[in-house]
Amino acid sequence: MSKSRYTKLIRDEAKRLGFLSCGISKAEFLEEEAPRLEKWLNANMHGEMTYMENHFDKRLDPTKLVEGSKSVISLLLNYFPLEEQNPNSYKISKYAYGTDYHFVIKDKLKQLLHCIHEEIGEVNGRAFVDSAPVMDKAWAAKSGLGWMGKHSNLLTQQVGSFYFIAELIVDLELEYDLPVTDHCGTCTACIDACPTEAIVEPYVVDGSKCISYFTIELKSEIPTEFEDKFEDWMFGCDVCQDVCPWNRFSKPHSEPLFNPTPELLFFSKKDWEEITEDVFKKIFKKSPVKRTKFSGLKRNIDFVK
């Protein structure tokens, strides 16, 4: 079988599994990303996310994650919801409406890897879903799936940015895609709209000022200087994506596991303020919101109310 037939087989299977798109790039050191990452870490823009300091070399070199790797297969999975929350309530980032994406995507990646083994043979590879030192946005951009927007999220002309990114790193040589051009132009909608001014310059986000960081990653108390700036976000934040003109092309996903529970959509502020631990466990049984725990969500609600 030729490289082109292997590549087609992988793309076809990715489409069958429900992925939005599939891009492939050569597994090699990310030269352009290295100085950017180093500068960002040195400026302490990762806040208390100390894990970002670990495995610097692995983040930039896929061959250190999968020995003898030749290709990085990047995949996008849409999560844009059909229905959104009660607009007068406390808000949760759209990515967390349904079942935790780690489980959903990992299962699809295992199936894709199984197909590769069945159809191509002995291929060494690993699946990655935001759980290892892999620069997924950089690889997706390198693979031609979109460009890095000024809000530092991957953007695609046809569908915007409401999708997850995942990878398979394999020791199989494939046909590689080319990056696409940047289409942000002179637009500064995301920079202007960020409630905490976390986008400190185009393409650079100070993670330690981001609402998503405060409501998910930060374990200590939220700094009082950010009071009245959260715009009712109690878990994550979608502001920079919501205002992006490219997201007018977002279409609802077709993954049943990403559908929210009715309570999540219809709860009022009062309902959230009075939520018990039992109700929290019921609504967020398999949700990414479990990361913040009941105490963390209560802390966030108390901060924004």
UniProtKB/TrEMBL annotation:
<feature type="binding site">
    <location>
        <position position="187"/>
    </location>
    <ligand>
        <name>[4Fe-4S] cluster 1</name>
    </ligand>
</feature>
<comment type="similarity">
    <text>Belongs to the QueG family.</text>
</comment>
<feature type="binding site">
    <location>
        <position position="130"/>
    </location>
    <ligand>
        <name>cob(II)alamin</name>
    </ligand>
</feature>
<dbReference type="GO" id="GO:0031419">
    <property type="term" value="F:cobalamin binding"/>
</dbReference>
<dbReference type="GO" id="GO:0052693">
    <property type="term" value="F:epoxyqueuosine reductase activity"/>
</dbReference>
<dbReference type="GO" id="GO:0008616">
    <property type="term" value="P:tRNA queuosine(34) biosynthetic process"/>
</dbReference>
<keyword id="KW-0479">Metal-binding</keyword>
<feature type="binding site">
    <location>
        <position position="210"/>
    </location>
    <ligand>
        <name>[4Fe-4S] cluster 2</name>
    </ligand>
</feature>
<dbReference type="GO" id="GO:0051539">
    <property type="term" value="F:4 iron, 4 sulfur cluster binding"/>
</dbReference>
<comment type="pathway">
    <text>tRNA modification; tRNA-queuosine biosynthesis.</text>
</comment>
<dbReference type="InterPro" id="IPR013542">
    <property type="entry name" value="QueG_DUF1730"/>
</dbReference>
<keyword id="KW-0411">Iron-sulfur</keyword>
<keyword id="KW-0819">tRNA processing</keyword>
<keyword id="KW-0408">Iron</keyword>
<feature type="binding site">
    <location>
        <position position="244"/>
    </location>
    <ligand>
        <name>[4Fe-4S] cluster 1</name>
    </ligand>
</feature>
<feature type="binding site">
    <location>
        <position position="154"/>
    </location>
    <ligand>
        <name>cob(II)alamin</name>
    </ligand>
</feature>
<keyword id="KW-0671">Queuosine biosynthesis</keyword>
<dbReference type="GO" id="GO:0046872">
    <property type="term" value="F:metal ion binding"/>
</dbReference>
<dbReference type="GO" id="GO:0005737">
    <property type="term" value="C:cytoplasm"/>
</dbReference>
<feature type="binding site">
    <location>
        <begin position="237"/>
        <end position="238"/>
    </location>
    <ligand>
        <name>cob(II)alamin</name>
    </ligand>
</feature>
<dbReference type="InterPro" id="IPR017896">
    <property type="entry name" value="4Fe4S_Fe-S-bd"/>
</dbReference>
<keyword id="KW-0963">Cytoplasm</keyword>
<dbReference type="InterPro" id="IPR004453">
    <property type="entry name" value="QueG"/>
</dbReference>
<feature type="binding site">
    <location>
        <position position="165"/>
    </location>
    <ligand>
        <name>cob(II)alamin</name>
    </ligand>
</feature>
<comment type="subunit">
    <text>Monomer.</text>
</comment>
<feature type="active site" description="Proton donor">
    <location>
        <position position="130"/>
    </location>
</feature>
<keyword id="KW-0170">Cobalt</keyword>
<comment type="function">
    <text>Catalyzes the conversion of epoxyqueuosine (oQ) to queuosine (Q), which is a hypermodified base found in the wobble positions of tRNA(Asp), tRNA(Asn), tRNA(His) and tRNA(Tyr).</text>
</comment>
<feature type="binding site">
    <location>
        <position position="237"/>
    </location>
    <ligand>
        <name>[4Fe-4S] cluster 2</name>
    </ligand>
</feature>
<protein>
    <recommendedName>
        <fullName>Epoxyqueuosine reductase</fullName>
        <ecNumber>1.17.99.6</ecNumber>
    </recommendedName>
</protein>
<feature type="binding site">
    <location>
        <position position="240"/>
    </location>
    <ligand>
        <name>[4Fe-4S] cluster 2</name>
    </ligand>
</feature>
<feature type="binding site">
    <location>
        <position position="190"/>
    </location>
    <ligand>
        <name>[4Fe-4S] cluster 1</name>
    </ligand>
</feature>
<keyword id="KW-0560">Oxidoreductase</keyword>
<feature type="binding site">
    <location>
        <position position="219"/>
    </location>
    <ligand>
        <name>tRNA</name>
    </ligand>
</feature>
<keyword id="KW-0004">4Fe-4S</keyword>
<feature type="binding site">
    <location>
        <position position="212"/>
    </location>
    <ligand>
        <name>cob(II)alamin</name>
    </ligand>
</feature>
<feature type="binding site">
    <location>
        <position position="184"/>
    </location>
    <ligand>
        <name>[4Fe-4S] cluster 1</name>
    </ligand>
</feature>
<feature type="binding site">
    <location>
        <position position="59"/>
    </location>
    <ligand>
        <name>cob(II)alamin</name>
    </ligand>
</feature>
<feature type="binding site">
    <location>
        <position position="194"/>
    </location>
    <ligand>
        <name>[4Fe-4S] cluster 2</name>
    </ligand>
</feature>
<dbReference type="Pfam" id="PF13484">
    <property type="entry name" value="Fer4_16"/>
</dbReference>
<keyword id="KW-0846">Cobalamin</keyword>
<feature type="domain" description="4Fe-4S ferredoxin-type">
    <location>
        <begin position="172"/>
        <end position="204"/>
    </location>
</feature>
